[in-house]
Write a structure and sequence with these properties.
The structure is a single chain. This protein is an alpha+beta fold. The protein has helices spanning about 10-55, 60-65, 65-75, 150-180, 180-200, 215-305, 305-340, 350-365, 385-400, 460-470; strands spanning about 85-90, 95-100, 115-120, 125-130, 135-145, 345-350, 370-375, 380-385, 410-420, 420-430, 475-480, 485-490. It has a five-stranded antiparallel β-sheet with strand order 2-1-5-4-3. A five-stranded mixed β-sheet has the order 7-9-10-12-11. The chain has a two-stranded antiparallel ribbon with strand order 6-8. Helix 6 (about 215-305) runs antiparallel to helix 7 and helix 9 packs antiparallel against helix 10 (about 460-470). The protein is rod-shaped. The model is unreliable at about 450-455 (pLDDT under 50).
């Protein structure tokens, strides 16, 4: 298991033991280093003291060349089991006496070296001058001692240090096991409380406070958070119950309104049926009397013009004009009714092609008028081709009609950006209108100019608005008197 996945109790125990062990290890290493250095110094001091004593006692032997006394003096070193060799050189540097008598090899230099003590070849070697009281040098004393005493003492100190380290680590482990609970218990209590809250969704539980330290502050903050969540849940439950009640009430109201709508729809369907019947009656029953009035008026004008006189003829001509205008009005009303009832068949439509066809029809019908058409190419939309042709036909014919008094009439069909979408437009430089009457443009039988100025029934724009509404779009207009008008529509 990775260290980060250990339980917090094991982490705390391991942390405390590792820290204690590292401190003890560093302390032991420092003590061992000092002990080793101290042993070496004491060994040097002991050997130096012994060399000075022997050198002081050897002056007479060297002065009188008494080798036997010198050998006897050196043989006293046999009581020291660590002494490897002892050599007394005369003033010429020759071996005067040695211990043991047969000593040889690396332990005995052929000639005395520099005065002083040093560690070489696993031995402590020292050269001590032998001098008389008058500072006359009689020779040199060489002593060599092994380091077994240092190693034995150092080994014993190491064993004692390891034993102390083991005991200290055991004590640190036991203490950490006892003391880590002061940190781990509050955290474990928090973890258990959080688990209980997450598993049972019970926000009424609280973590026990085990102290007033930072963990106690954390526990208190955690309990306060649980209290706020519990209050919020209670408020949510109450809101939910109230919302469910309101939804039930609204559902009942909606059902009642839906029932009323169904009833109204049935009534509207019946009214539409009656309207269809009325339109049929208008188109058939009223047309026959109108045709009779128009026909007999024409007969009177043709056969009895002389008897009628000028005033009678003028009256009959007015009667004929009125009947013809009423026939046109009936046709427009039927068109409006058909637009309302017609089923929408949505498909791609090239509005630019429709506009060009309508412009060509207008120019063929009145070739003497020179009107400039500016039709943007490739303007396409999704809608009913037949109804959209009615829209463009009405708008372009309106522009054709209201530019009749312009010296250089111009009609434009294009598109503009509108609220992140596209709006189509028909613009002219004709008679225009006053914007304060803009809300009357799309009403049935609403006209802003007299019939004497411009012909029409006032139904065309109402028909256009109904078609645009059925396509989910909207239509509006902008203009000014004698400065033309622009009609915008979206689909």
């Amino acid at each position: 298991m990775a260290l980060r996945d250990w339980p917090i109790q094991q982490k705390l125990t391991a942390m405390l033991v590792l820290i204690s062990g590292l401190v003890l290890l560093l302390t032991t290493a420092a003590f061992a280093g000092y002990q080793y250095w101290s042993l070496r110094q004491r060994t040097i001091d002991a050997l130096s003291l012994r060399a000075r004593i022997i050198a002081a006692n050897s002056t007479a032997s060297l002065a009188f060349a008494n080798e036997a006394d010198a050998r006897e003096l050196l043989s006293a070193l046999r009581v020291d089991p660590h002494m490897v060799a002892a050599v007394l050189y005369d003033k010429r540097g020759h071996v005067f006496a040695a211990y043991p008598a047969n000593v040889a090899g690396d332990a005995v230099p052929a000639a005395p070296g520099a005065d002083g003590y040093r560690f070489e070849h696993g031995l402590l070697m020292g050269f001590q001058p032998v001098e008389e009281a008058g500072s006359q040098r009689l020779g040199t004393l060489y002593l060599a001692s092994d380091l077994k005493a240092i190693y034995d003492t150092f080994r014993l100190s190491g064993i004692i240090g390891l034993a102390v380290l083991a005991v200290a680590l055991l004590a640190a482990y036991l203490l950490s096991r006892m003391l880590q609970g002061t940190i781990s218990q509050p955290l474990l209590a928090l973890a258990e409380t959080a688990k209980a809250v997450s598993t049972r969704q019970d926000y009424s539980v609280r973590a026990p406070e085990l102290g007033a330290d930072e963990l106690g502050v954390l526990t208190d903050a955690f309990n306060q958070m649980l209290g706020r969540i519990e209050d919020q849940n209670r408020a949510l439950r109450e809101s939910k119950e109230g919302l469910e009640q309101r939804v039930a009430e609204r559902t009942g109201e909606l059902e009642e309104r839906n029932e009323a709508l169904r009833h109204n729809s049935a009534q509207l369907l019946a009214a539409n049926t009656e309207l269809d019947a009325f339109a049929y009656s208008v188109s058939h029953d009223l047309r026959a009397p109108l045709r009779s009035i128009d026909g007999f008026s024409q007969v009177l004008l043709e056969d009895y013009a002389a008897q009628l006189g000028e005033a009678g003829q003028d009256s009959l001509r007015r009667v004929r004009a009125a009947t013809q205008r009423m026939g046109i009005l009936i046709d427009d009303l039927l068109k409006l009714a058909r637009v309302t009832r017609a089923e929408i068949r949505a498909e791609p439509v090239d509005l630019s092609d429709l506009a060009r066809d309508i412009a060509a029809e207008l120019q063929r019908a009145t070739p003497e008028r020179l009107v400039e058409f500016a039709i943007a190419p490739h303007l396409k939309a999704q809608g009913d081709p037949r109804l959209l042709r009615v829209v463009l036909d009405n708008l372009l014919r309106n522009s054709w009609k209201y530019t009749a008094k312009q010296a250089r009439p111009r009609i434009e069909f294009g598109s503009v950006e509108e609220n992140g979408g596209r709006a189509f437009m028909v613009r002219d430089n004709g008679a225009g209108f006053d914007m304060k009457y803009a809300d009357k443009l799309f009403g049935v039988f609403q006209r802003l100019h007299s019939a004497a100025e411009f012909e029409g029934t006032g139904i065309g724009l109402a028909t256009v608005r109904r078609i645009i509404n059925r396509h989910g779009g909207r239509i509006w207009a902008e203009g000014a008197v004698d400065q033309g008008a622009t009609f915008y529509f979206t689909l």
